[in-house]
Write a structure and sequence with these properties.
Structural class: alpha+beta
Number of domains: 3
Largest sheet: 3 strands, antiparallel
Strand content: 15-25%
Helix content: 25-40%
Strand order of the largest sheet: 2-1-3
CATH superfamily of the largest domain: GIY-YIG endonuclease
Oligomer: single chain
CATH class of the largest domain: Alpha Beta
Length: 216
């Protein structure tokens, strides 16, 4: 199967900067229209765009290339491990992982099974995935995006038996201690509503530790 992005007219690397706090996102893009309004597709960037508004971001084309292949190589050189460690960088992974690879040709089911196997057998990957998940949760808490979760459901579909077994095994290795998605949070209430905050954060005036439970 041919990569449809290879047929685009323009291939370039870019930098999107949050003018409010200086945080930035680096990436690559292939398009037929330079002014297509694209700002990036990173998860952390998505959260910040929703929080601050597109009007508070600056988009820069860094360098243009003749092909998608050249572009992928350029992104490898552009987004380094040092960038990922930079607290102002919104990227989650080094460059070059957005190209058209064998993994892109996999079905969703195949990608899920591959992910679960790696989660089960690779402790370092499991730890890294847990850290990324916690950061995403923290980002969402900060901008109140839990009400905007994807509403897509799995209704009418079924997992393969082997996938179910992998999910069970992977679940046994996660959700404990700091790997629990709720780790480090606590409930607070103002006796009208309840919400979670990260332990150590200041409790707003009029709120207290605890949770209001409605009995019916």
């Amino acid at each position: 199967m041919a990569n449809f992005k290879e047929n685009k007219k323009y291939h370039y690397t870019y930098k999107t900067t949050n003018l409010t706090n200086g945080r930035y996102y680096l990436g690559m893009h292939s398009t037929n229209q330079l002014n297509d309004g694209y700002l990036g597709s990173g998860k952390r960037l998505y959260y910040e765009l929703n929080k601050y508004g597109k009007e508070n971001f600056k988009f820069e084309i860094l360098e243009q290339f003749n092909s998608r292949e050249e572009l992928v190589q350029a992104e490898i050189n552009l987004i380094t491990e040092e960038d990922i460690k930079n607290s102002n960088c919104l990227n989650l992974k080094p460059g070059g992982q957005g190209g058209f690879t064998d993994e892109n040709r996999m079905s969703n089911q195949e990608r899920k099974e591959r992910f679960l196997k790696k989660l089960l057998t690779d402790p370092d990957f499991r730890k890294q995935n847990s850290e990324i998940h916690r950061q995403q949760l923290k980002d969402r808490w900060e901008i109140g995006m839990f009400s905007n979760r994807n509403s897509a459901t799995f209704k009418g579909r079924k997992h393969k038996p082997e996938t179910i077994e992998l999910m069970k095994k992977a679940k046994q290795e996660t959700g404990k201690g700091c790997d629990n998605s709720q780790f480090g949070t606590c409930w607070i209430t103002n006796d009208t509503e309840s919400k979670k905050i990260y332990k150590g954060d200041l409790i707003p005036e009029g709120w207290r530790l605890g949770r209001k439970i409605n009995y019916k």
